[in-house]
Specification:
globular; binds guanosine-5'-diphosphate; alpha/beta; about 220 residues; 7 strands; Rossmann fold; binds magnesium ion
């Protein structure tokens, strides 16, 4: 979803949160949109999405961030969740190796269901739990480079890099959108079709209905 409207905001961008259950997706969302954190483990905070409006390169951008209601536990995220998404924050827990190993599965899911131009950021959450670290930042960085993702470690608890992660996704989306808009404007300003060599149609008059290449 990347509508351009006139009043409260210039752009509305849909971003989806994905990753294994328990990695901190709902708390990343509540930290970013309400500056709240909840230590209790709740499977869902009960919102479908939350929004926050901010400035990106002088434009007012409304980020509409979608959270799973715990469906990731049953591998039952529907394609509606991904529909129209222009960005994704793929979260794992730096203290749980399995959640990092599953990143590739989540990428496959994104490639199957989301737009091919979607901007993806990998986030290693719970960076405050350094003594329990099970995934090095180097391993994650290497994976991110291989898969062409951006990467940050975050802590929803300490409000570390959460803002930066979303700012970075929104900026990348904005660049993708403006590049597309520019290409469309250029195409629209080019009058007619590209010039070619004139051909004399009479030379082809006997060829209608005939195959132009070798079979039979
Ligand atoms: N230490 C720490 N705990 C976190 C952090 N983010 C989330 N949690 C905790 O991890 C658990 C799961 O978080 P939640 O947001 O529900 O994860 P979700 O299933 O991915 O939505 C909760 O107990 C949170 O309090 C973090 O950055 N640091
Ligand atoms: Mg959740």
């Amino acid at each position: 979803m990347a509508y351009r409207v006139d009043q409260e905001y210039d752009y509305l961008f849909k971003i989806v949160l994905i990753g294994d259950s328990g990695v901190g997706k709902s708390n990343i969302l509540s930290r970013f949109t309400r500056n709240e954190f909840c230590l209790e483990s709740k499977s869902t905070i009960g919102v479908e999405f939350a929004t926050r409006t901010l400035q990106v390169e002088g434009k007012t951008v409304k980020a509409q961030i979608w959270d799973t209601a715990g469906q990731e536990r049953y591998r039952a995220i529907t394609s509606a969740y991904y529909r129209g998404a222009v960005g994704a924050l793929l979260v794992y827990d730096i203290t749980k190796r399995q959640t990092f190993d599953n990143v590739l599965r989540w990428l496959r899911e994104l490639r199957d269901h989301a737009d091919s131009n979607i901007v993806i950021m990998l986030a290693g959450n719970k960076a405050d739990l350094k003594h329990l670290r099970a995934v090095s930042a180097e391993d994650a960085q290497r994976l991110a480079e291989k898969e062409s993702l951006s990467f940050l470690e975050t802590s929803a608890l300490e409000a570390f890099n959460v803002e930066k992660a979303f700012q970075s996704i929104l900026l990348d989306i904005y660049h993708v959108i403006s590049k597309k808009a520019l290409a469309a404007a250029e195409a629209a300003s080019t009058p007619g079709l590209p010039q070619g060599t004139p051909i004399n149609v009479n030379n082809f008059s006997g060829n209608y209905g005939k195959k132009s290449c070798c079979s039979t």
